[in-house]
Each structure stands twice: as C-alpha cells, then as structure tokens.
Amino acid sequence: MGHHYLPRRLLRGFAQENRIWTLDMKCGGDPKLLPIARVAQEPAMYSNELEDRLNSEYEQPFNVILDRLGAGGGIGAQDIEAIARYAMTMLRRVPAGRARSAKALPDVAVAVEREQLRRIDMLEQLVPDERDLAEKGRANISKIMARIRAQDSDWLWHRTLLPENFPRLTAALQQMTWERWQAPAGRQLLIGDSPVLFNEYLGLGHEKAELILPVRSDTALIATWRPGHQGQLRKLSVQQTRLLNARVVARADRWIFFERHEDWIVPFVCKHSKVHDDHVDATKGKAGVQTGVQRRARVVDP
After folding, report:
1. Span 150-170, mean pLDDT?
2. Alpha helices (H) along 151-186
3. How is residue 93 annotated by DSSP?
4. Residue 56 carries which DSSP code?
5. Where in the sequence is the domain holding 177, given as residue range(s)?
6. 76, 231 in Cβ contact below 8 A?
7. Cβ contact 33:261 at 8 Å
8. What is the pTM of this model?
9. Confidence at residue 202, expressed as pLDDT on a 0 to 100 scale
10. Are both 110 and 200 inside the same structural domain?
C-alpha cells in the first residue's frame, strides 16, 4: 500500500466503519465505497524519513484534536499551533502541492543560477587575475543547473514540504482566529484531494483572508482575521454548507470523498468541479467532450 497524502485518521471523519465513498471526477462512473486504506494514497510518494516526520510531528498532535472533535468536544487556544502546522502540511503534501513545486522549479533554478553567477562576478572583480578560474566556475554552475532542471522535481517538493520551510505563513496561521464550523443536522461536508481551501492570490496577510480545512463530515475549521476567541462554534445554514462544499469541489484536482452516497452529490460535483471549469475554458465556452462526472449529472443541487 502507498503513502497516504490524506491521513487515514482524517479520512475516518468522513467514513463509516473504515469505508469511504469516493468519486473520481476525471474518469467518472458511479461513486465507489472503498476501504480507507485504498484511497488518497500513492506508492513511494515520500521517503520513509519524511513519512515518519509527517506522522510523528504533525499528524499525531492533530489526531488528539480530531479525537476530541469526534467525541463532541471543541478546540481552544492550546490547539492552535498544532492546527496551523497540520494545515500547512495538508496544503503541501497533496498531489496539488507536488504540482506547484514542479511548476516553480524553473523559476527557482533561474534564481539560484543568477545568484551563484553574481557571486562569481564579485569574486572576479576582487581578483581580476583569476579570470580563467571564474570562467570555469560559470561553466560548472551552468552544467549543474542543467542537471537540476533535467531531474524529477520531487526533490524540491520534499525539501520544501514541511511547515518549517514556511515560517511566516505558519506564524500567520497561529495568529489568526480559528473557528469551528458545524453543518446542519442531516447535511454532510465533502472533502477533496486538495482539502485546504484559501485564496492563494489574496494570501494570508489580507484582512479578508481565510483558510478552511474540513475535518469531519459535519465539521470544518476556519482561520480568519476576524476578532473573537479561539474555538468559537459557528453553526452553518444549509446555504452556507452548500457554498462550502462548492469550494471543496472547486479546489479538488480529481477525487472527492464523502460519508454517505446521496443523489445530489454527482451533479453537484459536476456543476462546481475544476475539471468542468477547465473544460469550459479550453473550449472558450463552446460545447465539447464531457468529462465522466459531467455525463452523470441529472439531479439538481440539494
């Protein structure tokens, strides 16, 4: 079995008897009820050392909070550091985080190469007689960076996955006000394969910034800059629950997970999925080949 990019303990909050409903937005078909061990995982996704650190330093402290929420409890100021660190790992450890690293690699390589060449230029100015040595240094830098560009980008993703590489973002999350959102009775929250919801263009420093993490089929945690005490309970309306689920679907890359199979889910996912949005963008609004999940849309939103 592979490494879980969504931890099993998190998935259990959206499952019944360790089985969870799974919808593939890319391939379509009916949702499938699968064992948690078989979903949200890939072979050899992390090194063993990285997997151990994710578990011991980030998952286990947060699991205590999940257990408390599952028993009907809440969160308090003492939990904010663990929540913030966990949320940062969930933003980075998923396939979408890997894709962001792959996209960033060319720019990172250019920046590193420029900095190294700048240092060689400075040294050459200090010791003009060593021009030949400086030229060899430039050639070596170019060769090294060419090799880095040719490599798989997973090395950059692994090196930058943990929150310690983003101290300012992690610190900002710890300074924000965290609330506990609860869905109405009989309504369920979905979770996707990219579960952390926030506007990356707005960033976390903006006064209207917010970050949302669904943690159970009836509970989500949200960080905002609104004044208030840590852990305040906010009960969602049906409309707010629908909007939150729409954001979950829009953020997801391929997979949606949920506790109960209900008729509204497939058409709802079709309506709000990024897969559908990409299809429309690519065809400039014209009709084209539908995705698998689109073909199954029959029922209106709940």
Report:
1. 82
2. 154-159, 167-175
3. S
4. I
5. 3-80+170-295
6. yes
7. yes
8. 0.80
9. 84
10. no
